[in-house]
Design a protein that fits this description.
479 residues, mainly alpha, 70% helix
Amino acid sequence: MSASLEPLRATIVRRPRLCLLLFALYVATGVAGLSIGHAPAGTTLIWLPSGIALGALLIFGYAIWPVIFTAAILVLLLAGAPAPAVFMLAAGHTGEALLAAYLVNRYADGRHALRNSRNSFRFTGMLLLAAVAAGATVNALTVTVTGMAPATAYGDAWLALCLGSVVGMLLAAPPIVLVSQGTVIWKVGRTIETIGMLFAVAMTGLLTFFHFPVELRGYPKELLCMPVLLWAAFRLGQRASAVAVIVVAAFAVAGTLLGYGPFVRRTPFDSLVIVQLFVASLAVMTTALAALSADYEVAERQLVELAVTDPLTGLANYRRLLEVMAVEVARADRHGRQFAVVFFDMDGLKRINDELGHLTGSRAVCRLAATLGAALRTTDTAARYGGDEFVVVLSDTDYQGARLVVERTHERLAEDPDVPTLSVSAGIAVYPIDGHTPTTVLAAADRALYANKAERALARRRAAVDIRDATGLVDTVRR
């Protein structure tokens, strides 16, 4: 028994405040939903606890089910349900949440279901399936068998339980799951826009679902909610859109129960059925569009990254190099500073490719790229110019600072234990001494590189001649 409770104990110990908050929210929203009534006894059209339970199961795992079961029992006891029905209804609500969590985990990527629109629609389908197959069917049967409602009310009870659970999961589960996926840094502009959006949602809710000085009787006022929700979905992200849907749902339910708005029907039950269908449609649409927008942003970032990144080394490519140099030129002109550009060329890459194969040559290029990245500051930029040539942009750096970078690169390559041993030639240019545009600075660094390569080649030839002369002298002495 102790071993079976260990996962639950670990979950509560790991995040006790969140567990307590979800428990309190489950009880508070459950009691409030059952107290509103307007449905057969033991049922309600407003059942946010289903979404809270689903969110908890997706975050913490199935081990949290005893907490959900306990919270459901407490809600039913506080609502005055008869003892025989309490445990059966609590088991039905808990089983519904467990089934929904299993289906979402199995077919909709679990807690990450809202990352793209395809899984978002699957998420909705799994919720509906769980409510129909478990919660609504079992609990409607319970309230009729235990005498809480007459057998003739089974259809209304089933409809109330199904709609209440599905809408509750659509409203409450997304914000809980999204909040658990890290924090968001809100900038001032985004915060102001979010406040403006919520104000627009509130004004739209008042205009649509309450008595307002502007008379719009006979017009489809409920459509006014959609542009605001589209604003939230495409501009402010999934969390803001989830909150916006909850605010719209609150205004819709409150206004309809008070007798205002386009969904008022002959009885409160009929009115709430229409409202819940409307809220469910808005929630599905907004959740899918927000997921689509988030997926598009990720794809856009990836495309931008691919457009400015060398696929082999992961360094910046030529396009990104020119962008960085343009920024450095503007900054240097504005502050009267210098920056340095270093042109690196790997020595002997053709020989490596010919003798050891192109795969080894590509690996050698990646080794040099990693060495350059390790030798630079976070404010510097390393780019692959093409083939075996690399360019490094050193912000706020003069010629001597660039020389230190070159020496550090030589040292790191000499210390690299991998084979073949790598070496590079380097050419340095400084803005604005060696050029006044990115192109002229690059050309100056390129000329310096080839001058350095010529000097090194001459030094190698002289060394070879000296060795040959020394060998000949030794042979002469021996003879």
